[in-house]
Amino acid sequence: MAEHVTVCEVGPRDGLQMARTIMATPAKIAWIRTIAAAGVREIEVGSFVPPKLIPQMADTAEVVRATVNLPGVTIVALAPNLRGAMGAYEAGAHRVSIPVSVSEGHSRANLNRSPMEQGEEVGHIIQWVRAQPRRMEVEAACSTAFGCSIDGVVPEAAVLRVAEALAAHQPDTLALADTVGYANPAQVKSLVRATRAAVGKVFTGLHLHDTMGLGLANALAGLEEGIRDFDSALAGLGGCPFAPGASGNIVTEDLVFMLESMGFATGIDLAKLLEARRPLHEGLPAEPMHSQVAKAGIPKTFRAAA
Ligand code: ZN
Predict the structure, then answer these.
(1) What separation in Å is there between the alpha carbon of 66 and the centre of ligand 1?
(2) Does 12 map to a domain?
(3) Active-site entry in 8, 142, 148, 240
(4) How many Å lie between the centroid of ligand 1 and the Cα of residue 2?
(5) Is residue 306 included in any domain, yes or no?
(6) What CATH number is attached to the domain comprising 66?
(7) What is the Å distance from ligand 1's center to 287 Cα?
(8) Among 7, 22, 254, 296, whose Cα sits 20 to 30 Å from the Cα of 161?
(9) Res. 8: pLDDT tops 90
């Protein structure tokens, strides 16, 4: 039996927040359904942020409600604060992901709070979520963990300090995010090891961007260090409105190709996944779409993991 790797599609959230135009709600929902039909089992469908800040996310509650009953699919929503987490809960999200920027500059620009203040907010959110009758998972994500477009170098010690503060609140999972895409494979290996040593098994995931063209190399480095949980975006959409210069997430199609070729089962049908590009393009015709696999076609040598 092949070892399983979870791929969480974050295109509808991370990908769309930088899009030049707004994807209409029905188009978004149709797109998410085709992603699920390809076998993707975790989809981050939006974020509960003020629509004035990110108008692309104004319909997140509606999108969650329309997708939360897709069989076998974990619907994730991002929320930067308790109000957002309450919105995610009310809409029925299975998991809420809360970002905590490790770098002071990004944290202030994004949330107008220091990293430690935002860490406290995660504690409040977890307390509130656990007091509710329905279970909702909470993921805490250390953003800008590999470098920051505002502050520059983010010391490993600073990442570990934030990760430890978050782990103390006992989220269900903790992830490291290369929000601006400055990581390199050696750094990924080092930080994955150090974070696991500091917080243990709660640390499960990597969220990577391809700004420097090292996205898949970084994913491979994480894979070799035992990471089995990756975020990626169809067609490599994405960026961060508060992180100048950040480009798209690692490309889901290419990540799935790499993982399956290496013998890691994702449960995702690559040919069907490529078909999910069409509703994305129809919903956002002006948006550039990436993917080497889409460009070249699935080669005859490709065998999905058993
Ligand atoms: Zn991101």
Answers:
(1) 23
(2) yes
(3) 240
(4) 28
(5) no
(6) 3.20.20.70
(7) 17
(8) 7
(9) yes
* Cα(99) to centroid(ligand 1), Å: 10
293's tokens: 């696999």
Is 301 a member of any domain? no
252-298 pLDDT tens trace: 999 999 999 999 999 999 999 999 999 999 999 988 899 999 999 99
240 assigned to active site: yes
What is the model's pTM?
0.96
Q: Which domain holds residue 54?
A: 6-296
41 found inside a domain: yes
Number of domains in the chain: 1
Ligand 1 center to 1 CA (angstroms): 32
Taking the C-alpha atoms of residue 197 and residue 200, their distance in angstroms, rounded to an integer, is 6
CA of 14 to the centre of ligand 1 (A): 5
